[in-house]
Fold this protein.
Amino acid sequence: METEVIVVGAGPTGLMLAAELTLAGVPVVVLEKERTRNPQSRAGGLQPRTAEVLDLRGLLDPLLDRAVPRGEFGGHFAGLPVELDCRPWRTRHPYPVSVPQARLEDFLEQRLIGRGVPVLRGHEVSAIEQDADGVTAGDVRGRYLVACDGGHSTVRKLLAVPFPGTAGRMSAVVADITLAARSASVPTGSEHFSRYITSAGGYFSILHPIEGELYRMIFGRLAGGAPGREVPVAADEIREALRAVYGPGTELGELRAASRFGDAVRQVERYREGRVFFAGDAAHIHLPIGGQGVNLGIQDAVNLGWKLAAAIHGWAPDGLLDSYHAERHPVAARVLHLTRAQGVLLNPGRDEDVAALRDVVTDLLRTPDANRLVSGMMSGLDIEYPGVGPRMIDLDLTTADGQVRTSRLLHSGRGVLLSCDGKPRSIDAWADRVDHVTAETDEDIDAVLIRPDGYIAWSAAGSQPLEAALTRWFG
């Protein structure tokens, strides 16, 4: 089988990348070693920037039909009892969106299948060969390959790509369960994440309702050894933790799915190895807290997708593909730094020194400036790439065709030159890659060039000529 891009891994990152390539008219094949999707909730929500990115492609509204109803609670940092307020970042989606990972994957996969994209399950990659013209993965040949196959990436191992970092120091369990009986200490409704964290009987636990009778439980021992990650999670293990933390009046009903995780922190040194790229957990792993993994992976996909498409269609300027590493590697490195800090501050053992630090950080987060800083980092709303402006705010615009939001202009996956000052601008040489929209808005804006991933590549208020920016990003 021949294609243009081989995507290995049918998680959120791989499926979103395949969707981006398909939108750009690039043939793609998705290879997934598992025959069926993991039904476990795993990542339970989307950060505000992830919601914005999905909105840029018209994917958010239909996905919201699969969301789990929840109150309007801000995000959290290290489980501290302060809501992170993303409203100062001028987003239409200031609260995390509760969509279990399995539902997100199913939504994206069904859209791909509906568009004729092959998603080949039960297809494990056992060998990879590169040459000057392309990449071969088993019986599939493409011009490029993107490894989106998770923290234990087969592609990364086959290519002997180093994955430096630190090994995990703790092991915990995450499980989807129902309860046959529950004590008064078991939460029953939507609350801020911090309200679900507790410890007792030698365990720490985070137990919260997902939907209906289904609960998500994260727990681990405060001291002593823990089974290795390869050891299956037994129902008796969960029963013991439930009783220890929530009392004998809490009984396990059904164990739907469970797995173990740790706090290892690793990142590949280069996101590109010849014609192979790394994205999502294949490129970086960390303590799973605050929806950071899905947030990173979706944005990796949207950053890389239009650049790969440009290379395949033959108009990518020099350095465009390499800008993927230059832009996304530092973003993930910062997230790894943040998750290390949160791992310390979570403090399930209630160490007195760390407890004092928690109190100080909690007080800081209650100040508007500190809250805005941390909410921007946790949500991804504050990201700015080198030589590129911030993300484009989703403005209300008035065009010749009526009212429209800025995000709607990017549904095609093309660049957009948005003019609000009435000045004519010729972009004939780039008309097949950039849409020119003339609009009116109440905002103080003259003209901006927006990349397909939603970041401002040029503005009339700057000193760079428009033609230089168009040439840099659109060939």
User: Anything to note?
Assistant: The chain has three domains: 5-164+266-379, 171-261, 396-474. The radius of gyration is 23 Å.
